[in-house]
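Attaching the record inline, Q. Sequence:
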Amino acid sequence: MRKSLLIGGVVIGLTSSLALAQPEDLLPDIFNDPPPDAPAPAPPPRATARPGGTAPSVAPLPNAPVVQPIPGVTAPLEYAPVVLPEDFPSIEELEEMEDSEINELFGLRPKFDVPQTARRALSRIGVVARSEGGFPSQSLAGQPASLVRSALEGTRGPLVSRWGHILLRRALSSRMDAPVGMDPVEFAALRAALLNRMGEAQVARALVQDVDGGNYNPALVDAAFDAYLGTGDILGICPVTQLHAGFRDDGEWILAQAICAAYRGDTRAAERRLDRALWEGEAPEIDVRLAQRFAGAAGDAGRAVDIEWEPVEELSPWRYALSRALGEEIPDNLLAPVQTRFAFYDATIPATPLVARIAAADRAGGSGVLSSAAMVDLYSQLYASESVTDGDRQPGITLREAYVAEDPDDRLAAMQSLWGDQENYGRLVLTSYAAARLPVSDDFAGQADTILASILAAGLDANARRWGELVEEGSQGWALLALADPNGGTVDANAVISFLDDDASEDARKSRFLLAGLAGLGRLDSQDVARISSDLGVDLARSSAWSERISAAGRYRNAGLVALLAGVGMQGDGWHRMTARQLYHIVSALNAAGLSAEARMIAAEAVARG
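Structure, as predicted:
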């Protein structure tokens, strides 16, 4: 009925002015046309000339409106007929259109969803202020826009270093001004997109929410859509779908618009739009069915929707996010190939089953998405849960023993059980604070390397220093302390050579990383650096366009730019992707820029995981 009235208004407007609805008349009656039965007003009295040629003054009629003539207009105004575009929809097509499409057609869509007085400036976009540990707001403002754009676009995926990931996340989420010559919205979109690629959907969502919806551009819309899917917040994108419906026309966007319509109360229109998407093939059937199930929860839930996974060949972020939000079980044949890709989703989406979150937490913790404290909280939920089997609950019980067992031997045994036969860096992060509470004892000397790696995984360098007298010179534990000790000095070259002789890592990778870290921190004499570099076949002095830029940023103590360029140099799916030369330039630039703690932790992590 509402659409019929609207269409009638359009037809009437074809011969006069285009009007979609008449607002309530708030003018006094005197400004309206008189009622039909009202007597016509009497003509004014004719003026008679006075002697001398002056006309007598005439008093105005009481309650008569005074109409000010329009200057220069002596004839009645003529209105030109409205000419509609050739592709203007027909009456039948208008009847089939949804509210959002009609609003788009007639320009009724608002540009902003907040009052003008509440709109935010497009400066210092971010979520972490400098007082909270963020980088200075002007860190990138004076840099060439092309350099910043290349660094943000060039970092395509996860980083090999947990501490490098944490550093880059802090830089991307800081309240920063855009470089000169770059649109602030583009700057926000590039940062949010990189956070999504790193698995930091929660931070990306917070970042895009710091920009008013009316200021979004297509790139920021895409980044926001990915961030909301990555956090399982399907409805978070709804304000943007209203403000910028025309920015995208893919199937997922159409389905999101229908879901948002359902949760705004227009469930009938949402059902029709989803049905049309299915009939016309605008989106794959599995995507539509999941959207129908999700949208149906906004209504009376009287419509049953079956989810058929058998014909599905791959799992997309849309299917993954909606399945988790709906509690729909995903078949193993679809989940297994992409389990690594969506591990960060599972670790942070609250709707993910607890056992699945625990399985994903190790990778998320090892990559830097989860902190040690966050992992302990998650495992504590597992320990306290009564809805999981005893077998699934066992890791939570073991972690509790690692913290509260009275005998230190029992605590270490529990940690070793969690670490497993093969080193799992995520589990080292999980046990960091438990390892830091162990007493320094000769009984644990054989496990000192792993204990120190676990302690330093959470950055507890002061606790790690307690083990300095216990570790043997030239061992991995010694190497970790030589790099991580905030008060460390010049290292004896003979100890480095001793480490090299006992190094069993592939291609002496740990030795190469130790050399690069010590050289970058300035803890090894330059002549010793040259001699050991020759023995290992490493050329730390070789430069490139990237190394020149990150070195210059370090010399100028621009920590924000160094963090950004360090991310470019730490891309990869494992430490086998990192070279000693790259590590040297990263550690050296970070140390020069005042980020010595981050430089030390990255160098120590490289040796522990190399």
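Residues 112 and 379 are 43 Å apart (CA to CA). The chain is about 50% helix and 0% strand.

More tomorrow.
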